[in-house]
């Protein structure tokens, strides 16, 4: 019944006292939140715990949602901050990037490819290359390409200026390109 409603309509219903429609938002974004959480902790149980925390925080803070931005941007910001808080509590300085699903432009091209084996090999290649990036670089590429966030939305999420995000994105692309060309030269030729 609520499946066809826009995120903002569902939020309106929840704010009017209906709790059940919030489960639609959980269904829509649980994979998104879990995937991002896995990138930070690289542990399924911890990522599931973080994802639950994110949705509890989102539910409790729903009245503070500014409908001028996308719900996914707001939810990503909560996920980002919850993951960082979790890592601080864990007192670890490392952030895993092993679970990166890849860079959007290349992945979207491979998803349309008719040959599944080529698609899988490209994903594996991108996965390997992304895992060799610093976590901040992998995060910004994932936000821009996979999560399809604008520079302004990424700036809001990370607390940086749009210009800083633009520079970081450019540098991260260059680093990924260098990794692909240096470590996987035969495969990287197709992406020039």
CATH superfamily of the largest domain: Winged helix-like DNA-binding domain superfamily/Winged helix DNA-binding domain
Number of discrete helical segments: 10
Order of helices and strands: HHHHHHHHHH
* Range of helix content: over 70%
Task: Report the CATH C-level class of the largest domain.
Answer: Mainly Alpha
Number of domains: 2
Largest sheet composition? none
Mean pLDDT figure:
78
Number of strands: 0
Shape: elongated
What is the CA-CA span between the terminal residues? 46 Å
Named CATH topology of the largest domain: Arc Repressor Mutant, subunit A
Low-confidence stretches: 92-118
Radius of gyration: 18 Å
Label the CATH architecture of the largest domain: Orthogonal Bundle
Broad structural category: mainly alpha
Strand content: under 5%
